[in-house]
Amino acid sequence: MNVCSKCTLQIGDEVEVCCNSEGFLGSYWKAIIVANMGTNYLVEYKDFVDEDNESTPLQEIVIAKDVRPIPPVIVPSKYSSLKGYRVDALINDGWWVGTISRRKDPDHYFVFFETTGIETLYPLSKLRFHMEWLNGVWVPPNKRCIPISSKKRFAPTSSKKPKKMGAPAFSEEFTPVSFEERSELMEL
């Protein structure tokens, strides 16, 4: 899979679509871009089928701001303190945004979903760090800050001296963004 750190979406690209429909609010679903319609895209979902013909993948026109490339895979480490991290939890083939609220054991974490008010236990293998796609750049969530080592590891933000954590390194194609850069991107 080609991870896109800065790119323009093209017909045929595999993407994720943020769903804002009732019952799916804040979830991300895999799709392929079928047509670029300026401020909208026609997408074909990988895991949804047409109501009238269940053998046909669902196609839908979606607002361009709700479409993003497939994010870099950054899996939380079981050796890190993950409480408060924004993550995506894989549920029924879609990624749902939540926050790690507590740890059961090194391989299982409770995730709280703000959209539903529900806290659920997930294996670490079904979680990834949540990333925002802002103005063509992947932006890490607020809990993490600028790199503190050559391995591009991240530490929680605080006024205390940062300590190294076991968060996984980013791929070579991902460029970490500082909070100052993140603020500038969000103002655009």
UniProtKB/TrEMBL annotation:
Segments forming domain Agenet: 7-75, 79-135
Listed transmembrane segments: none
Domain of life: Eukaryota
PANTHER family (alphabetical): AGENET DOMAIN-CONTAINING PROTEIN-RELATED (PTHR31917), DUF724 DOMAIN-CONTAINING PROTEIN 2 (PTHR31917:SF148)
Protein name: Putative Agenet-like domain-containing protein
Source organism per UniProt: Rosa chinensis
